[in-house]
Design goal:
This protein has three helices and two strands. It is α+β, with helices and mostly antiparallel strands. It has a two-stranded antiparallel sheet. The longest helix has 23 residues.
Length: 107
């Protein structure tokens, strides 16, 4: 997978995780739940944008449950990270065995 594909997979799996948690907490079936994510490649600067997350749920949901599922997916950590651009520092260690891009995840 390419790095952009991994990013889309991360967003999709996060959305699916929150959707499944919502359904399980309400004893609703998560069987057949599908999530797909698409994005457009934008320019100046080159980046992904216009993300679209589609959640397909086979379970029959009430209007209230449907809205709850939507809210749950919106709580996805990756989704929220993309909504608020994080600070990213890049550090180069020249002359050492590895060149690292300063990316760390704190829990």
């Amino acid at each position: 997978m390419t790095p952009p594909e991994l990013m889309l997979a991360s967003l999709g799996s996060c959305a699916a995780f929150y959707a499944v948690q919502f359904l399980k907490a309400r004893k609703l079936s998560d069987r057949g739940l599908e999530v797909s994510v698409t994005a457009e490649k934008l320019k100046a600067p080159a980046r992904l944008g216009n993300f679209r997350i589609e959640v397909h749920c086979l379970a029959a949901l009430t209007e209230e449950q449907t809205e709850g599922l939507r809210r749950s997916v919106h709580h996805c950590l990756i989704h929220n990270t993309l909504l608020t651009p994080p600070e990213i520092k890049i550090e180069l260690a020249i002359g050492e065995p590895a060149v690292t891009a300063g990316m760390s995840v704190a829990g």
